Amino acid sequence: MSGYNLIRPLIFRLDPEFTHQQTIAFLQRASNKPSRVARLTKRYRKKIPKLPIELFGKKLSSPVGLAAGFDKNGVAFPALFALGFGFVEVGTVTPRAQPGNPKVRVFRLDQEESIINRLGFNNNGLEAMLGNLSTYSSSIRPGILGINIGKNTDTPNERAIEDYLACLGAIYEYADYAVLNLSSPNSPGLRLLQQESEFNELVHAVMEKRDELASKQNDKLLPVAVKISPDLEPEQIDAVAELSLKHRVDALIATNTTIARTAPVLHKHFTQSGGLSGKLLADQATAVISRLASTTRGQIPIIGVGGIGSAEDAWKKLLAGATALQLYTAMVFQGPVLLRQIVTGLAERARHYDERNFSAALEQARSQL
Question: I need a surface site. Which of 264, 300, 340, 366 has the fewest CB within 10 A?
Fold first, then answer.
C-alpha cells in the first residue's frame, strides 16, 4: 500500500477544491526550489522506466502526460515533471482573469473513482501565467510543456476568435504546443464552437495566426492541438476530424469531460451539473478515440484522456488509436505512484511483441486486433 493510500481517507474528508489548492501550493513551493525538484525527481521520475515515443517532433520519456486543469496558472510544472510525466499541459488560461462558477463546484464520486466539476475556466489570466512561465527556465523541462487556451466567459462566441488569437500570441514563445479548448461543458456556449461552420472559421484563423507568428519567431512552428467533447454525435466527430485534416491541426485531444449520466450510479452527487471525469468516462472517451483514428486514417496524432486508472486502461486507449495519453482524475484517487504503475505496465505489454521500439510494438499489437 502506498503512503498516499494511507492518508487518502483524511484528505477525502476535506473539500475537493480546497485539497487541490493545497496540493498546487505544495508543488509550487517545490518548483521554486531546485533542491526540492531534485528530491522529487529522485523519488519519482528516476523510478519510472523509459518508454520513449515521439510527439510533435520531440522525443518524450514516455507516452503519459498530465492533462490540463490540474495546474491552471502554470505555477507548478517543474515539480510535475519531477513526478515523471512525459509531458505536462497547463491551463486552461483565458485572456483576462476570471473566478469561474460559484462554489461549491467540485464533487468526488469515491466508489466510482470519478469527479464532477463545474469550475468554469477559473484562472488568473494571461498576464499572470506569463509571469509564472518566465520564472522557470526551459532548461528544467525534461519533457514538453503544453498550454491550454480558452475564451473568457463574457466573450460572446462571435468574438471568440479574438480571445484564442490573443492567447496564442502571448504564449507562443513559452509553449511546446498549444491546445484550443472548445469543449468544456462549464463555460456557457463554448461547445457550440465545435459546430462545423464555427470550428472551421476558428481553426482556420488560429492556424493562419500560428503561421504568421512562426515567421516572427525564427520559424518556430508551434504545434496546435484541439481538445474535443465526448458528447459529440458520430457525424460531428467526423466533421471535426475532416476539418482538422484540412487545416493541418497537429493533434486532437480526446476527450474533455462529459455531461452524460448514463451509468447506474446511486451516489448522491451523481446528478450534480458539470463535467464528469474519471472511470465513468473511460468507455465513452475510448469510443471517440476509435472514431477519430478511423476518420483521420492515422494522419493526426490523438492524445487519449478520460478514465485512465491503470495500465490496462491506458493500453485500451492506445490500441483504439491514441498516440499518447493524459492522466488527471485517477491521480486524485491513487496518488502519484499511479504514473509509474501505468508506464511499467505499458512497457511489459510492449515486450510481448518483441519490439525494442514502443511505437512499433503498439502498431504490431493493433495489427493483431
Answer: 264
Instruction: With beta carbons less than 8 A apart as the criterion, state whether 249 and 224 touch.
Output: yes
What cell does 21 get?
489548492
Catalytic residue among 114, 183, 184, 229: 184
Q: pLDDT per residue over 74-122, tens digit each? A: 999 999 999 999 999 999 999 999 999 999 999 999 999 999 999 999 9
Q: Return d(Cα 66, Cα 210) in angstroms, integer.
A: 24
CATH number of the structural domain 3-367:
3.20.20.70
Q: Which segments within the chain are labelled E, that is strand?
A: 53-55, 58-60, 64-66, 87-93, 106-109, 114-117, 144-149, 177-181, 224-228, 251-254, 275-278, 302-305, 324-327
DSSP codes, 293-321? HHHHTT-S-EEEESS--SHHHHHHHHHHT
Q: Is position 184 annotated as part of the catalytic site?
A: yes
User: What pTM was computed for the model?
Assistant: 0.95
d(CA 84, CA 343) in angstroms, rounded, equals: 10
